[in-house]
Amino acid sequence: MKKLGLKLAGMALFAMLCMLTPGREALAAPDDTIPQGVSAAGTDLSGMTREEAAAAIGAYVSSLGAQEIQLTAEDGRSVSVTAGALGLSWSNQDIVEEAVNLGRKGNIVARYKAKQDLEHKGRDYEIELEFDRDAIAGVVEEQCAQFNQEAVDAHLTRVNGSFEVEEGQTGYIVDEPASVSAIYDYLTREWGHADGSVQLVMTVDEPQGKAEDLMKVKDVLGTFTTSYSSSGSSRSKNVSNGCALIDGTTLYPGETFSTYEAVKPFSEENGYYMAGSYLNGKVVDSIGGGICQVSTTLYNAVLRAELEVTERHNHSMIVTYVDPSADAAIAESSGKDFQFVNNTDYPVYIEGHTENKKITFTIYGVETRDPKRTVTYESEVLEKNVPQQDEIVQDPSQPVGYIQVSSAHIGYKAQLWKVVKEGGKEVSREKVNSSTYQMSPKTATVGTSTADPNISNMLQAAIATSSISEVQNTLANIQAAQEAAAALTPEQLEAIAQAQAAAQQAAQDAAAGN
C-alpha cells in the first residue's frame, strides 16, 4: 500500500506539471518573449522579444554614457568628459538569450522551479559594463596635455653688464599610462553610474640649477664677432632676430644646444624676412636668409670656449664673413643643424647682441683652463677652383632688357686646425673639420621676349659670346637706340625708314649686277 501511495503521488505531481493552471500558461509552451518578472538593472524586460530587450538595455547603457566624469589635475584644474567618450560598452549581452529561455530549458522539474521563482521573486540581471583603455588613453592624451606644466629651470639674466639669478619653478606632468589605469580602475570598480571624478596621476618635474652654481658664472670662455655690413635691410633683420632668439640661454652641464631648435620656425610671425640664401649651388631668396651667419658666429665662439661640437655642416658655397672651414650652416630643408654640448662642470650662459651691423656671441662660464694656455684656429686651403666662364640662362617669359646677375663663387677644399700653445709654444695641432665648397660661375638670367627680329638677333649674338659683359653692353645699346627712336618726330622716322629702304634696294640691285 505504501508503494502504491508514492506511485499515485508521483503521478499526481506529473499531472499537475503537465496541466494548465487556471489563469496561467503551460510552462513548456513555446514562446520567444521574455517571461513576466524579468528585468536587467531595474529595466523591466517582461514580454519583450530578444531584439526589444537588447534595445532596451542598450538605451539604458547609452543613458549611462551621458554621465560626466571629471578628470582632475594636481592644481585643481579639470576637464569633463562623458562615460561614453571613455569607451563605455555592455559586455554580457548573453543575458538576453538567458532571459528568453528562463523556464523553458532543462528538465520538467527545473522548468517548474524557475517558473515558481519568477512568480515569487522575479529575476533582475546585472548589466556588466566595460571601458576601452585605448579610448581612455586618447582622451588623456588629447584633453589632459593642457595640464602639463614643465619645470622652469633656474637661469641667468644679464642686466647692464651684470648677472642676475632667477629661481626655477617646479612643474607637473600628466603620467599618461598611470592616469589611464587610474581612470579604468575607478570606472570598473568604484563608479556608481552617476557623475563622478578621478584624480589624474601627475609626476613632479623638478627644475635644474642651484643659485650657488649660477652665481659662479662670470668668466668669458669664448667670444666671436662677424660683420654683415654689406647686407640689405631684410638680411640684417634676420641676423638680428636670430641672435635675439639665442641670447640669454643658460645651458647646464651635459645639456645639448640645438641652434635650429632655438631659431625656428622660419616665418614672418617669428620675425623673419625674405633674403638671399644658398640652394643647390645658387643664391635664392628664402624666408630667414642670413640665419647661417648667426650659427657661424656662435660656432666660432663655441670653438674658443672649447665646448663639445656634436653637429656642424659647411655651406654649399663659400661665405665671405669667415675663413674657409670656419662656417656652420643650418638648413631646414636638408636637416642641417649646429649642435654642441656643455662639457664643463658648470652652467654656461650665451650672450648675443648686434650693433653697427656686427653680430657677437660671448659664452660665459667658470674658467678652469690654465691661464698660460692659449687656443687659436687656423684655416688651411687645400684646393681652389676658379670659374673660367660665365653662365647665361635665357628666359623667354621676360622681356628684352631684363637681366639678373648672380656673382661667381670660387670652389674650395679646406680644413680647420685647432692650435694649442702653452707659454707661447705650440704643444698640439688638431684637425677640427674638413669642408668642400662648390664652384659656381657668374650667372645671368636674361629676358629674350621681343617682337623685333633685329633686336632678337643682336641679343642672340651677344649671348653666343658667353660673356655677361657683352650681353649687358648690348642691352645698353638696345635701350639707347629705343630711347633715341622715341625722341624722333614722325617725319624723321619716315625719312629714316625711306633711307633704309633705299639702301636695301641698292644693295639688292648691286647683288643682281644692275
| Helical residue percent band | 25-40%
Tally of domains: 3
Distance between the termini: 165 Å
- Helix count, per DSSP? 13
Overall mean pLDDT: 88
Number of strands: 27
**Alpha-carbon Rg, integer:** 44 Å
Structural class: alpha+beta
Strand content range? 25-35%
| Molecular shape | flat
**Poorly predicted segments:** 1-29
Walk me through what this model shows.
There is one protein chain. The chain has 3 domains: 24-148 and 180-200, no CATH class; 216-369, no CATH class; 445-512, no CATH class. The chain is built from 13 helices and 27 strands. A 4-stranded antiparallel sheet has the order 13-21-20-14. A 3-stranded mixed sheet has the order 2-1-6, with helices on one face. It has a 3-stranded mixed sheet with strand order 4-3-11, with helices on one face. The termini are far apart. It is an alpha+beta fold and 514 residues long.
Give a topology summary:
Elements: H1 2-18, E1 38-40, E2 43-44, H2 50-65, E3 68-72, E4 78-82, E5 89-90, H3 95-100, H4 108-120, E6 123-125, E7 129-130, H5 133-143, E8 155-159, E9 162-166, E10 171-174, H6 176-190, E11 196-199, E12 202-205, H7 211-214, E13 219-227, H8 233-246, E14 249-251, E15 256-258, H9 259-263, E16 274-279, E17 282-287, H10 291-305, E18 308-311, E19 339-341, E20 348-355, E21 358-365, E22 373-385, E23 391-399, E24 403-406, E25 411-422, E26 425-437, E27 443-449, H11 453-464, H12 468-487, H13 490-512
Helix pairs in contact: 5-6, 8-10, 11-12
